[in-house]
Recover the amino acids of this structure.
């Protein structure tokens, strides 16, 4: 027992002595380079090694080199024969930027309260070598195997001719994309744009630079240039997380992959937009471009007076269907015509808009007779043939078989003209042959009570007329008040559906969002439901709307989207309804 105690005491004493010796030993901090002479296409590894833990490490500026990776940190600690060894290393991978002699300056660190510095080292960079022995870094592998491309269908289109832009992320089979996040979405200034949505991302096989690659379609957009000349398409930028193979392998011989984050950009693309030719441009051309067809139809051509019919002016085909005005019908003055109802049936694909747009007129004849609807003309530019095309409708005769007749023949007149019906003299009145007359006592009117009342009545009405006149003048002078009243009525009309659904979260916010979009559609004559909130903000700002009103409008749209996923109380719904009424009122003042 006594011998065992001596052995344990001696072991503890030697261990404590070794530990104290290690802790009290000299501090070392040095720079180690993988090589001092390398080709311009090789890589340099710089290790800053210390034998004790330190803080506040400051690397040199690495003048003449580009940092590919780092700093990566590694720590090593071990006991050998009772002696503790410790090492901490900061590692950088550098790429030379040019040939020449460069000096890697001092790195500094604080160890045990003292500042320690490395000795500067000189490196010579020579011509590129045939077989660079430096293995490519993770970032270099990612750069070589990851590409974001914007594929444009046409670089020299005509104005209002569709151009498709497809954004594809190409990556080789050696790397794997785990996630991506957009950093900067293009705004497409000077273009009418619509994004083509899709349900999910899918990986497809293709080629890039003549090499087999895989790719993912990230975004598809159809653009219609709104001005001629050189127009730029802003780049799309992404932050991509990917798995990159390294030259290391695990215990089972499988390659170890490292995670890298890269920012890629599709680059700025430029279109040379051609103006529509002036030669051969028809009179009344409204800006329609595409392969179109035009017709005017009526629901019936024979009817009775006071019955109604519908006349429809429609344009169908493929083209900029949302970006031009339909021609107006010219109808006889003796036909009562209501404001046309606009409708559209349009689908937007990667090749552009297809479908039809139409305006339907409701017509009510007042007298019997025959009424011709004169032909109207519609013209458009066809970019496929690079010529203007025109089409005229056929003359349609409406026959009213029953009803009163008009003396004057119906003549064509512009919509909204004042109609003055003239009743014919073929009217018969019954005259009673045996009247039953009774004698009546006659009394003079002058001096009677009725005579006095009628005499004084105008004098009594003068003060009332003066008061009413002043009230009317005050209302006419109150321009702002009149605008507010009209705007309030307009807001109530658009929000009536949402008000009825207060308390029903989903239905209320669907109705509120539709009301906001319908208001802008009526005011701006565009389909705002197909625009993003940024595009709507840009449109309202361009129209001179105050920034506060624009912020409130976009915030309401965001609430409508958030309501699908978040609980909203009736109090919040009422607040959003009141705010929507205020916003529409403010927008109406500016628009």
């Amino acid at each position: 027992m006594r011998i065992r105690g001596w052995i344990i005491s001696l072991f503890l004493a030697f261990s404590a002595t070794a530990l104290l010796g290690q802790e009290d030993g000299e501090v070392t901090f040095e720079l180690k380079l993988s090589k001092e002479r390398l080709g311009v296409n090789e890589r340099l590894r710089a290790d800053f090694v210390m034998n004790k833990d330190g803080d506040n490490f400051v690397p040199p500026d690495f003048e003449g080199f580009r940092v590919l990776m780092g700093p990566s940190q590694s720590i090593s600690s071990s006991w050998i024969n009772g002696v503790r060894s410790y090492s901490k290393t900061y590692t950088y991978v550098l790429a030379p930027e040019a040939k020449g002699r460069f000096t890697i300056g001092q790195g500094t660190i604080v160890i045990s309260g003292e500042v320690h510095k490395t000795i500067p080292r000189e490196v010579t960079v020579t011509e590129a070598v045939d077989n660079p022995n430096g293995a490519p870094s993770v970032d270099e592998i990612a750069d070589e195997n990851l590409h974001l491309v914007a594929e444009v269908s046409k670089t020299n289109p005509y104005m209002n001719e569709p151009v498709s832009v497809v954004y594809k992320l190409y990556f080789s089979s050696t790397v794997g994309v785990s996630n991506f996040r957009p950093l900067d979405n293009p705004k497409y200034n000077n273009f009418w744009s619509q994004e083509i949505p899709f349900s999910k991302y899918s990986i497809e096989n293709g080629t890039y630079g003549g090499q087999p690659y895989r790719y993912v379609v990230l975004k598809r957009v159809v653009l219609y240039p709104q001005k001629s000349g050189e127009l730029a398409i802003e780049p799309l930028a992404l932050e991509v997380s990917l798995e990159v193979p390294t030259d290391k392998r695990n215990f089972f011989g499988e390659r170890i992959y490292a995670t890298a984050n890269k920012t890629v950009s599709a680059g700025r693309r430029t279109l040379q937009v051609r103006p529509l030719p002036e030669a051969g441009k028809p009179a009344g051309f409204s800006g329609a471009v595409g392969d179109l067809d035009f017709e005017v139809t009526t629901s019936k051509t024979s009817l009775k007076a006071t019955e109604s019919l519908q006349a429809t002016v429609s344009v169908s085909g493929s083209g900029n269907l949302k970006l031009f005005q339909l021609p107006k019908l010219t109808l006889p003055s003796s036909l009562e015509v209501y404001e046309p109802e606009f409708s559209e049936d349009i689908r937007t694909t990667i090749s552009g808009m297809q479908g039809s747009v139409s305006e339907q007129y409701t017509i009510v004849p007042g007298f019997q007779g025959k009424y011709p609807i004169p032909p109207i003309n519609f013209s458009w530019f066809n970019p496929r043939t690079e010529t203007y095309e025109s089409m005229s409708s056929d003359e349609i005769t409406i026959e009213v078989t029953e009803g009163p007749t008009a003396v004057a023949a119906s003549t064509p007149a512009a919509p909204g003209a004042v109609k003055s019906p003239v009743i014919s003299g073929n009217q018969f009145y019954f005259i009673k042959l045996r009247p039953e007359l009774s004698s009546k006592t006659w009394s003079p009117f002058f001096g009677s009570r009725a005579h006095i009342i009628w005499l004084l009545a105008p004098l009594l009405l003068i003060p009332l007329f003066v008061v009413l006149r002043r009230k009317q003048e005050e209302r006419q002078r109150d321009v702002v008040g009149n605008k507010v009243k009209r705007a309030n009525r307009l807001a109530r009309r658009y929000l009536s559906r949402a008000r009825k659904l207060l308390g029903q979260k989903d239905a209320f916010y669907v109705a509120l969002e539709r009301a906001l979009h319908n208001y802008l559609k009526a005011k701006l004559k565009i389909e705002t439901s197909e625009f993003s909130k940024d595009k709507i903000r840009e449109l309202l700002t361009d129209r001179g709307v105050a920034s506060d009103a624009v912020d409130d409008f976009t915030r309401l749209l965001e609430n409508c989207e958030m309501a699908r996923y978040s609980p909203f109380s009736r109090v919040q719904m009422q607040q959003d309804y009141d705010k929507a009424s205020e916003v529409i009122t403010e927008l109406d003042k500016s628009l």
Remarks:
- The mean pLDDT is 79.
- The radius of gyration is 42 Å.
- The domain at 140-273 is CATH 2.60.40 (Immunoglobulin-like).
- The first strand starts at residue 29 and ends at 33.
